[in-house]
From TrEMBL:
It is an enzyme of class 1 (oxidoreductase). Pfam families: Pyr_redox_3 (PF13738). Gene3D superfamilies: 3.10.450.50, FAD/NAD(P)-binding domain. This is Flavin-containing monooxygenase. Its EC number is 1.14.13.-. It comes from the Bacteria. InterPro entries: Auxin_biosynth/cation_transpt, FAD/NAD-bd_sf, NTF2-like_dom_sf. Keywords: Monooxygenase, Oxidoreductase. GO terms for molecular function: monooxygenase activity.
């Protein structure tokens, strides 16, 4: 009896919630939540990616959305669980136009967090499983068109006789995954990529680059990595996988293509996009454009007084490919986050004498430690417990961003204690460590600023052993003909300087392709408005502008690491598909606010 009590409590709450919604009683529904409550919705009620914080916000959303949403068929999925007084239950439901799923967490009979996410558009579901395409027409026909003939015709006509409904600008991992999602939903899409081959965005990086996240976290939709795939994927292997994926998923993928300009006609609700495809200018007329140009925008180049005097080579990390030509030379690497560490290792392995210039403290976490305590639900053990990658994605997404810091703070207390000796050795080597303004560690830095962290896959031991030098705690005054002059009067001789100083926001790419006005209108991407340095308020509750409607109609942003791209590509695709099919998409909530 005790084992089924959580499910009975969850069923009772869900029944009361469903009744209140059916009656159109937003106040009654909101009263089923605790005072300090959160409801995160991915499209089902809001046609947005947004979080309502507090009963009043929930009531306001329901008052605005219930009449069109018309939610029904609420059902528990499996048995509820109980942990330290919190009951967790998964459920499914339907709206007027979609099916959905979600996770609730109850305390003392009321809801603390609710998560709802769209799974399919009714009548426009992906053709899979029992509904998969037949693949052949069993009838003799002299006009028969084979699969290869149909693909050749589509490739020939799309972008010429037929215009794409959606143009995805950027053919790296994010653009490829979104292209696959749109393909499966039947949205005519072209993905454009400036490089010569799919996967070159990985191949063209420095030779030692390997993914820092484990394989269970990095699967692409539809085709997971095989079971013998390495835990940490080398860059060239990832490049080959992406190239294979574009072929197998039948993407309309244009290589050697650069987007030159784009403008939106508000009256026609149409973009005019000029691209250069292998030296030929082509004008496309998509209804929607998606910027999938990576997690960030153009390189951020810092002002270095005296740069014109420096006689050596000065590069941004985006221009760095190999340390081979720096063999035997003195190289200074400005920056102590992920790229800075990786470039230092590559240079050291190539025989350079390397010094890292650390401008601010860095959050460092040992890879082994993070694997054991930070990726618990993305692991082989998790799979053995029935937690698939898809289920793990939902678990992560179900936690409102406002509550993530508390869990991360507790996690990093464990990490700091576990690896205390490691951190002491790093500090003794002159390397400055921090865990964020509020001790929340790597993940919150990634969300808030996208900078200032490193998962240690080898560089830290080189720093501890003195193989990679460190200059920390003193600012650069200027470059000199032979190196770097610091504010304390000391100098560092350098034959080359690699600036691993990060990238600007994705909206800066929009400025170069669309206009400065539109870039400023949509505002920056990423960040939560947490108020820490680099992430100014006001509080957003969600990542700015990512995967949801922006202030510019028919302009979207998609990106992030492999896991974020995998998960959120589904919701970008559903939003675009709904608009293509004329499904009403009343968006609740304003676009991300400018800061």
């Amino acid at each position: 009896m005790l084992e089924i009590a959580p499910s009975k409590q969850a069923a009772a709450w869900l029944g009361s919630f469903a009744s209140a919604l059916e009656a159109g009683d937003a106040a009654a529904a909101s009263n089923l939540f605790v005072d300090d409550c959160y409801w995160r919705d991915l499209l089902t009620f809001t046609w947005n990616i947004t979080t309502m914080e507090g009963r009043e916000a929930i009531a306001d959303m329901l008052a605005a959305a219930l009449a069109t949403t018309k939610p029904t068929a609420w059902r528990l999925s499996g048995e509820a669980t109980s942990d330290d007084g919190t009951i967790e239950a998964w459920f499914s439901f339907e709206t007027a136009v979609a099916s959905g799923e979600g996770i609730m967490r109850l305390r003392d009979g009321r809801c603390r967090t609710l998560f709802t996410a769209m799974t399919d558009l009714k009548g426009f579901e992906e053709r899979k499983g029992a509904d998969r395409p037949l693949g052949v027409r069993h009838k003799a026909d002299p006009q028969r068109e084979t699969w290869s003939e149909a693909r050749a015709r589509e490739t020939r006509e799309l972008g010429a006789e037929e215009q794409p409904y959606c143009l995805v600008i950027g053919g790296g991992q994010g653009g490829i995954m979104l292209g696959a999602r749109l393909r499966q939903l039947g949205v005519p899409t072209i993905v454009i990529e400036k490089n010569a081959r799919p996967g070159d965005s990985w191949r063209n990086r420095y030779r030692t680059l390997v993914l820092h996240d484990p394989v269970w976290y990095d699967h692409l939709p539809y085709i997971p990595f095989p079971e013998n795939w390495p835990v940490f994927t080398p860059k060239d292997k990832m490049g080959d996988w992406l190239e294979m994926y574009t072929r197998v998923m039948e993407l309309n993928y244009w290589v050697a293509t650069k987007c030159l300009s784009a403008s939106y006609d508000e009256a026609e609700k149409l973009w005019t996009v000029v691209v250069d495809r292998v030296g030929r200018r082509i004008t496309l007329k998509p209804k929607h454009i998606v910027f999938a140009t990576g997690a960030y925008g153009p390189p951020r180049r810092i002002d270095l007084p005296g740069a014109d005097q420096f006689k050596g080579e000065l590069l941004h990390s985006s221009q760095y490919a190999s340390g081979e030509k720096f063999r035997g030379k003195k190289v200074a690497v400005i920056g102590a986050a992920s790229s800075g560490h990786d470039v230092c290792v590559d240079l050291w392995e190539s025989g350079a004498k390397v010094t890292m210039i650390q401008r601010s403290p860095t959050t460092v976490v040992k890879s082994d430690t993070l694997m054991e305590v930070g990726f618990e639900i993305f692991s082989e053990d998790a799979l053995a417990r029935g937690i698939t990658t898809e289920k793990a994605d939902m678990i992560v997404a179900s936690t409102p961003f406002a509550l993530v810091p508390k869990g991360q703070r507790a996690l990093y207390e464990v990490i700091k204690a576990r690896d205390a000796a490691f951190y002491d050795r790093l500090r003794a080597a002159g390397f400055a460590i921090d865990f964020g303004d509020d001790e929340t560690g790597l993940l919150m830095k990634a969300y808030r600023t996208g900078s200032g962290y490193y998962i240690d896959v080898g560089a830290s031991s080189l720093i501890i052993d003195g193989e990679i030098g460190v200059r920390s705690g003193v600012a650069i005054k200027s470059l000199t003909p032979s190196g770097i002059l610091f504010e304390d009067g000391s100098e560092l001789a350098a034959d080359a300087i690699i600036a691993c100083t990060g990238y600007q926001s994705m909206n800066e790419t929009v400025a170069g392709i669309v206009s400065r006005e539109v870039a400023d209108k949509v505002g920056p991407c990423w960040g939560l408005g947490s108020g820490v340095k680099g992430d100014p308020g006001p509080w957003q509750g969600e990542l700015r502008n990512m995967w949801k409607p922006t202030a510019q109609k028919a302009l979207w942003f998609h990106g992030g690491n492999l896991a974020l791209s995998r998960f959120y590509s589904k919701y970008v695709a559903l939003q675009i598909k709904a608009r293509m099919e004329g499904v009403a998409t009343p968006v609740y909530g304003a676009p991300s606010r400018r800061c």
